[in-house]
Design a protein that fits this description.
The chain is an alpha+beta fold. It has three helices and ten strands. Strands 7-6-10-8-9 form a five-stranded mixed beta sheet, with helices on one face. Strands 2-1-5 form a three-stranded antiparallel beta sheet, covered by helices on one side. Strand 3 and strand 4 (about 90) form a beta hairpin. The N and C termini lie far apart (about 70 Å).
């Protein structure tokens, strides 16, 4: 084989190996680079949140087609249940709206109704709380998609003493706090109690 042909074969083989390694990289598909041009890891601004699950103190609008005595506004109690006429107490906490619709429908159909058509909307959420090194600590209304950064903004921003690298969050009904790094912007949930610590010089 001629030297020029041999070099061409070797170059082609090397390129094929490089492409195979890139395709097997743990950093994800080509074009979705995990690192910047300077080699620094890219940090997402927000952590994606999953589907919202119903929580205590959430306000629900439950509509049952052709059943005005059942259709109405309900509140999830402190134990996580909602009491619906003809369906009884239904465990709601921890379920998505679609899962709760299915559960209410099943309990209605196991009673006096047949083929009940149920639609549920969340009309109000439990508040969240923020304290510590923010300018206006207090209770604020929750909206889906809120993050710790949003909560701090609603509370007037950080004080000059704040440690802006982390936050302590105690979820509703939980006994203790969970430490969250603010390198990302973690989502919050209704009933969360957020504490922004003071930085130590």
């Amino acid at each position: 084989m001629r030297p020029s042909m041999l070099r061409l074969v070797l170059v082609t083989a090397c390129l094929a190996n490089l492409l195979a390694v890139a395709g097997c990289s743990n950093n994800g598909p080509v074009g979705l680079a995990a690192y910047s041009a300077e080699g620094e890891a890219r940090v997402p601004l927000r952590v994606p949140a999953g589907p919202y699950t119903v929580r205590t103190n959430d306000q629900l609008r439950i509509q049952v087609y052709n059943e005005p005595s059942i259709t109405g506004d309900y509140v999830v109690d402190s134990a996580g249940f909602v009491s619906v006429p003809a369906a009884g107490r239904v465990k709601a906490s921890g379920l998505t709206v679609e899962q709760l619709e299915s559960k209410v429908r099943a309990q209605l159909n196991s009673g006096i109704l047949k083929d009940a058509r149920v639609s549920i909307q969340i009309t109000g959420y439990s508040a969240f709380y923020i304290r510590g090194e923010v300018k206006k600590p207090g209770e604020f209304p929750y909206k889906p998609g809120l993050t710790v950064g949003d909560a701090v903004a609603l509370a007037g921003g950080y004080t000059y003493r704040a440690d802006e690298s982390k936050a302590y969050v105690r979820p509703a009904q939980a006994a203790g706090e969970v430490t969250h790094s603010l390198e990302t912007d973690p989502p919050i949930s209704p009933g969360d109690n957020i504490r922004i610590p003071e930085r130590f010089l």
